[in-house]
Amino acid sequence: MSTAPALDPTHTALLVMDYQPAILSFVPEGEDRNALLGRVEGAIADVRAHGGTIAYVRVGFTEADWDAIPATNKSFAPLAQHRAMHHEDPATTIHVRLAPQDGDIIVRKNRYGGMSTTDLDQQLRERGITTLVVSGISTSGVVLSTVIDAADRDYQLYVLSDGVADPDTEVHNVLLHRVFPSRAHIIDTTELHSLLQAG
């Protein structure tokens, strides 16, 4: 049973980050990917049912974004060079199974973190959100960057252990078990349901 505090849905947002076809392709196809999507789909439905906020973060680049990436940026310069992940490419849309609804927050970023190149923080604060439940791909990319940033901004944080994935299992496990616990409560989708009920 989780020792994490109950969630007040009116002040809680579920972050659904980088759940895009181009990025999901890094998760093994078949049962793994379907199960992951199913769990996040369930978490979205759960948070919605309790009156919480859903905030989607997607990565996608405009011509200007690519042009602004310096050659020294080890992660993003190759994307700019190959003009990859254009923001209008269907592969950068949010996966159809997790499709946003009216009233959801949707931001487009062009770096790892969900807040660093977006107005996500501002939109959350305008809605009175103080607690974030984090899901995303990958654990060592968007999840790591956003958890560190959000912790520094004093959000109460929960990481959905079965709503994050990474191509590198070892890195994924180190982050979940050794790094994130100092900044966030680590829960799974079953615990999320219980904490929403208790809130």
Short description:
This protein has 199 residues and is of the alpha/beta class. It is 38% helix and 19% strand.
Q: How does this model look, in words?
A:
The protein has 199 residues and is α/β, with parallel strands linked by helices. It has eight helices and six strands; from the N terminus they run βααβααβαβαβαβα. The protein has a six-stranded parallel sheet with strand order 3-2-1-4-5-6, with helices on both faces. α2 packs parallel to α8 (189-198). The chain starts with 11 loop residues before the first strand and ends with a helix.
List the helices and strands and how they pair.
Blueprint: E1 12-17, H1 21-24, H2 31-49, E2 53-59, H3 63-68, H4 77-81, E3 105-109, H5 120-126, E4 131-137, H6 139-152, E5 156-165, H7 169-179, E6 185-187, H8 189-198
Parallel strand pairs: 1-2, 1-4, 2-3, 4-5, 5-6
Helix pairs in contact: 2-8
> Number of helix segments?
8
N-to-C SSE series? EHHEHHEHEHEHEH
The oligomeric state is single chain
Structural class: alpha/beta
Record keyword descriptors for this entry.
six-stranded parallel beta sheet, globular
